[in-house]
């Protein structure tokens, strides 16, 4: 008898693993967050925070049109971000209640205070830039928004990873880097859209670095997730993550190769980068919901007959 037939005739000594939960119910409760509100909040907050950093850099490097446009963009993004958060909470009073105390150990509490501090700084910076008045106050507000921007862009990753959701918590080390890189890609894309081509050099460099960093962070997160990585690669989340990767790399390549000479190329690259960042946030959100709803990712496997 051949070795192949012997293998076919063998019986497994250890039964296959089965993933079961109590009466088939999920072990943990999936977040009740609405995808449109919270994934949109993740994206818009990142766009605002990273945009403020690019705005400060543009102002320091003598690119006034880019600086003004990015300040206005950041103000619009953080306003929409706050609106999405409040809409998910149900009523504005709940957001105000989160400001009654400050808990350094609570990402939600820290994020609420961070949003409350960043919003006025971004608003003052944009208003002073548009009106041309109170330049010293505008410069101070620009610096303040730029300092708070990276925290605003990354804290939502900490907020998600602090939950028991396997697809988020399992990548708690890499998720802040992934969110920051995605936010930088989005802000670079916005800069390519709103800035004149002659001022787009830093945005094109930032887009290339962000695309590379996002790819590295995604691969590192997938390696750490183990079996849970299936939720990042399959279903709706998998489609979104693959689309995000293609859009981000294509946007960065388009901006790097032709963005400085061609306005249509800059627009195309910028839109691709923005769309890629949106897909990344919604893809990670969808992966988290999928991992929370399936017992396979939330229970210890049980063996038949043991």
Q: What is the strand tally?
A: 2
How confident overall, as mean pLDDT? 82
Count of DSSP-assigned helices: 12
Q: How far apart lie the N and C ends?
A: 33 Å
Percentage of residues assigned to helices: over 70%
Query: Could you tell me the strand content as a percent range?
Result: under 5%
Shape, please?
Answer: globular
Low-confidence stretches: 1-7, 14-19, 299-306
Sequence of strands across the biggest β-sheet: 1-2
Radius of gyration: 22 Å
Written description of the protein model:
By secondary structure, this protein is mostly helical. The chain is 74% helix and 1% strand. It contains 12 helices and 2 strands. The protein has helices spanning 3-9, 35-60, 64-89, 92-97, 107-131, 135-161, 166-169, 175-194, 201-225, 230-233, 235-258, 263-293; strands at 17-18, 302-303. Strands 1-2 form a two-stranded antiparallel sheet. α8 packs antiparallel against α12. The two termini are 33 Å apart. The relative contact order is 0.15.
Q: What is the gist of this entry?
A:
This protein is mainly α.
Notable traits:
306 residues; disordered N terminus; disordered C terminus
Furnish the topology, listing elements before pairings.
Elements: H1 3-9, E1 17-18, H2 35-60, H3 64-89, H4 92-97, H5 107-131, H6 135-161, H7 166-169, H8 175-194, H9 201-225, H10 230-233, H11 235-258, H12 263-293, E2 302-303
Antiparallel strand pairs: 1-2
Helix pairs in contact: 2-3, 2-6, 2-8, 2-12, 3-5, 3-8, 5-6, 6-8, 8-9, 8-12, 9-11, 11-12
